[in-house]
Amino acid sequence: MSMIRLIGAPTDIGAGHRGASMGPEALRVAGIVEALRDRGMAVEDLGNLSGPMNPWKPPVNGYRHLPQVVEWNRAVYNAVREALGEARLPVLLGGDHCLGLGSIAAVADHCRLHGKKLLILWLDAHADFNTNQITPSGNVHGMPVACLCGIGPPELTQIGDHCPAIQPEQIRQIGIRSVDAGEKRLVHEMKLDIYDMRYIDEIGIKRAMEEALSDLDDNTHLHVSFDVDFLDPEIAPGVGTTVPGGPNYREAQLVMEMIADTNRMASLDIVELNPAYDDHNRTARLAVDLVESLFGKSTLMRL
Ligand SMILES: [Mn+2]
């Protein structure tokens, strides 16, 4: 496995609550570097990117803080692109989920250049497929998937070398349980592959993950975009946008272990951790615990 490169992006520029800007430090305090090194991995932590302050303003044309969102995403795009170019496995420590745009646009351009097939697992309570026309809030952390698929303002849809950065069939969304009305129609039109909680309840997390991971091959670059609000708020209170009815501890572990079993994860975002809502950094410690599983830690020895 290649060396892991941690990239901190301390901002809440696209969020509806302040505090995700403290996410990178909370993950470090919870021991993310040590945990990965204990797993035998080489880890470099390049510290944090910098970008504009959050002006905390109302939306303009349906977007909050668009120029600042663009600036942060450019910084993330460049850092992730550079990491992949240097054969590092980038782990983005967010920050809110608007940064998934820059991160995945970089991964998509890298994959195009190297003839790799890209598959994205989007672990989230929300579909993040809003547009300025249908968004109830203007918060851009609800829009990155639409922007990646080419729906959004040119400043965002053209953040990388290609527009659209990805095709809808390259993304699998897991854990979805809160979708806005207009967004519902749009994800249906775009034929997004969504494993929502209803479906997971019906067929079980194991089968849902088997389906989501079914067409991986040796040439696949698997990107995981892990929004901490994917998890049930009972175990993960430290997010701004909790939605009840998410995966519990064991289900979340199984998701991570099944991803690890593929041996194809080549980039990762950990986003929306919000220490201002957390209880003594408990959610950050859980995120680190799950990331260890993503990188192959399991309870029992398995062959
Ligand atoms: Mn999200």
From TrEMBL:
Cofactor list: Mn(2+)
Any Gene Ontology biological process: arginine metabolic process
Cofactor binding remark: Binds 2 manganese ions per subunit.
Gene: rocF
GO function term, MF aspect, one: arginase activity
Catalysed conversion reaction: L-arginine + H2O = urea + L-ornithine
GO cellular component, one term: cytoplasm
UniProt similarity note: Belongs to the arginase family.
Record bears the keyword Manganese: yes
Enzyme class: hydrolase
CDD domains: Arginase
UniProt binding sites for Mn(2+) 1: H97, D128, D227, D229
Annotated residues for binding of Mn(2+) 2: D124, H126
Pathway: Nitrogen metabolism; urea cycle; L-ornithine and urea from L-arginine: step 1/1
Official protein name in the record: Arginase
PANTHER family per the UniProt record, alphabetical: ARGINASE
PROSITE patterns: ARGINASE_1, ARGINASE_2
EC number(s) stated in the UniProt entry for this protein: 3.5.3.1
Signal peptide: none
Taxonomy, superkingdom: Bacteria
Keyword tags: Arginine metabolism, Hydrolase, Manganese, Metal-binding
